[in-house]
Amino acid sequence: MNVNLSAPVFLVKGSDEVILGDEVSSLIQQLVGDGDRTLLLAELSITDHSLEDGGYTIGPVVDASQTFPFLSDRRVVLVRNAAVFSTKDACVPLVQYLEDPLETTSLVLVWEKDPRPNKQSKTPAVPKSLADAVANCGGVVVDTSPGTGKAQGGWLDERISGSTLKLDPAARRALVDHLGSDVGRLPALLEMLESVFGAGTKVSAPDIEPYLGVSGDVAPWDLTDAIDGGDVSGSLDVLQR
């Protein structure tokens, strides 16, 4: 993840929980670096946001963000389940904090819903007031969503190109075909292949096939794209998946 690590706040969102989790882990690793994680990192989750009456409070998030570091020069505040603050009113204290954020705090807001049953059926949108506050203070928005159709293809190409392996065109196609619509498995799969072959290794399709395992599902637009493009062979391959 190539972002400005000196930004006061990072808003990380995405439609795939696995990819979102991987990107958050990568960001935290970059922010902490070689520092002492126990001193640098403060993590808040749904238990910190929850009130006894079933509501939510953003107070602990603001308090943690305003706390000066101890025995270090920076403090990373990781806020899980930030999507529980999905209304303008709920975000007011945080928006006010972002008007003059603490220079020694790196605030990471993970836009994921309340994981408990019967709380949030889906992840709500980010309130405009919060999105504007993040932008106005020089914050970073990281959208991890892989998209669909051609956008997803571009997302896959970008991540495969970022791998330390040198996959030839056939290997790239084999990897993408294997994943189908289950693209959330790509980061872990690339990591596994990198550990097997080593950084900088040129890899072909026959090289990776023994490590691919079970194929993922096929997205419905894959068949539509193949048919629209007159790709008879490709259409048959999709139908057989």
Could you please describe the fold and organization of this structure?
- The protein is an alpha/beta fold and 241 residues long.
- It folds into two domains: 9-143, Rossmann fold; 149-240, Orthogonal Bundle (Helicase, Ruva Protein, domain 3), CATH 1.10.8.
- It has helices at 17-32, 37-40, 46-49, 59-65, 88-98, 128-136, 149-161, 169-179, 186-197, 205-208, 220-228, 232-240; strands at 9-13, 41-44, 75-79, 105-110, 140-143, 166-167, 202-203.
- The longest helix is centred in the first third of the chain and has 16 residues, at 17-32.
- Residues 217-221 have low confidence and may be disordered.
Layout of strands and helices, then pairs:
Elements: E1 9-13, H1 17-32, H2 37-40, E2 41-44, H3 46-49, H4 59-65, E3 75-79, H5 88-98, E4 105-110, H6 128-136, E5 140-143, H7 149-161, E6 166-167, H8 169-179, H9 186-197, E7 202-203, H10 205-208, H11 220-228, H12 232-240
Parallel strand pairs: 1-4, 1-5, 2-3, 3-4, 6-7
In short:
The protein contains 12 helices and 7 strands. It has helices spanning 17-32, 37-40, 46-49, 59-65, 88-98, 128-136, 149-161, 169-179, 186-197, 205-208, 220-228, 232-240; strands spanning 9-13, 41-44, 75-79, 105-110, 140-143, 166-167, 202-203.
Comma- or semicolon-separated keywords:
241 residues; Helicase, Ruva Protein, domain 3; 5-stranded parallel beta sheet; Rossmann fold
H/E topology pattern: EHHEHHEHEHEHEHHEHHH
Sheet with the most strands? 5 strands, parallel
Q: What general form does the structure show?
A: globular
Mean pLDDT equals 88
Number of helices: 12
DSSP strand content: 5-15%
How many beta-strand segments? 7
Unreliable parts: 217-221
Our measurement of the CA-to-CA distance between the termini, rounded to an integer number of angstroms, reads: 32 Å
CATH class of the largest domain: Alpha Beta
Please give the domain count: 2
Label the CATH architecture of the largest domain.
Answer: 3-Layer(aba) Sandwich
Structural class determined from secondary elements: alpha/beta
Radius of gyration: 21 Å
